[in-house]
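Contributing new records

If you add data, match the layout below exactly. Sequence lines come first and carry their own label; structure lines follow with theirs. Keep one chain per record. Anything else will be rejected by the validation script.
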Amino acid sequence: MRQDMQRRITHEVIIVLGVLLILTYITRLWPIILLMILAIIASALKMVFMSVKTVEVIVPGPPLLALPAPETEESILQKAFGLLQRRITDALGEEYPDGRWVWSTQNAIENFKNNDPLIIFLKSASGHQKATVKTRNLLFLSLEYGTAAPEQSSAEQIENENKEPYTSDFVETYDEPEGVTTNYELVAYEWVSSNLISINKRCNEAIADGKSELFIPSEELPHPDSYFDICEELGRNEFKEVLILEGGIELKLPR
């Protein structure tokens, strides 16, 4: 709008200069005529430059950052459950640096969500076999250890030594020399290696029947002291959730 006003004023100035030029020509005032001609030329050039429209380049601003998608209740629960498992490992490591654990509670994440009791099975924890995980409102509080297994008296040790060694249809036993302890990690590895194909077949059959778990009774397993290592070995073979229950081991099947 401002440019239009200036253009209109310049146009009127040119008209006035033209009229004055005619009057000065009649009166033969040559120096003034020369100056007026120069003024008319300058005004015309000014109008030409003002008529050229300037193109304004609009620079786009920085793009707006997209807001993150809101977290669902399920995702928050999964994160809290993962943090709970790390807290359990840290708390157990502070008390027993060599201690390890697996879940003994079925549907641990559901119990965690509902503030129901959570039980874990322990190994290398100074005789403690189980512990209760104390939680409140999806927060870890503490571990409450069960009573440690009592030390055997000399009479009980002699009685246990006189018992027949444990045998299983799935594990080959050997006569060990005195003073040599059983490597249950090796026992678990050998048992899983020799039965992995059979376990996968049974899992596929259970899934086809619509079942959500497969229970392996203790009659098919080696010594109970190897259950913990069997759970870890099965976990390394893509069995995500393995539980030690009374009377055997249970595998959770994918839905």
